[in-house]
Each structure stands twice: as structure tokens, then as C-alpha cells.
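Q: Got a minute? One more chain.
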Amino acid sequence: MDTSSILRLGVLGLAVLGIIGTTIELVFLEHWNGLTQQIVWPSMLALVIALALIVWRPNRARVWTARALAVAIALVAVVGIGLHVHENVEAGPLDRHYADNWDSLGVGQQYWLAITGQVGPAPTLAPGALAEISFALLLATVHIPMARREEG
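A: Always. Here it is, folded:
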């Protein structure tokens, strides 16, 4: 195997581990209460579909579809990060460390505390896992041998 094939397999392996690990984590967290928590499930399915399009008999149309899905899920991830930060900012006044002085903190400081996970229940890195998996799938589409044969 050449170097690019080995790297592609490694990146695909990381995407598979990311999908499996994130799905297990979401199940353990019972991440299905309410519409905003349910958004992630179609996103996970889309990542599985994108992975399948890349792995099984890739051709130009499948590769471009996988890329479009990966970009769409990366955008969902950015929205998810925003929702998690917003939830943490909203929880700030209820936090035992900041309840007494939350309103006196500047907006920038409130958002910093929310982004870094120092306040609120929602981990901001969690939706970032979707972006990371999407990026891995995008990388795995670079110079796929079967897709190149069709283009030439």
C-alpha cells in the first residue's frame, strides 16, 4: 500500500471511532430530550452515510455527496456549539460559584466561563466531535483512486 492509502485508512478509522464513541456517549447521556437534543441523531446518521459512500464503491457522485454531508454536519456542529454556550450562559445565574455575582460580570466574561465549561451543564466540546468527524471524512475523500479513474 502506498502512503496516501495508509493515511486514508487511518483517517477513516478515526472517523469510525469518532462515530462509535460519540454515539455511545450520546446514549449514555440520554441525549434525546427535546428537539434541540434530537438534532444530533440525524447528524450521526448522515455521518454514517457519508462514511459508507466513501468506503463502498466510491465514485465521483458519491464522493461529492459525502463531502456535502460532511460540510453540512460541520455546520450543524457549529450551531451545536452555539446552543451549548447559550445554555451555559443561561445557567450562569443558577451556578453555585457565580449566582451572587453573575449579573455583575461582563458579557465577555460570562461567555468565556460558558465556553470553557466553568459554568453550565452543556459541554461545548461535545458538538465539536461532529466537526472533527466531518473533517476526517473530508480528508478521506482527497485523491480517492476510484474517483480519480472516473474523472480521467
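A: The chain has one domain: 3-151.
Q: Perfect, thanks.
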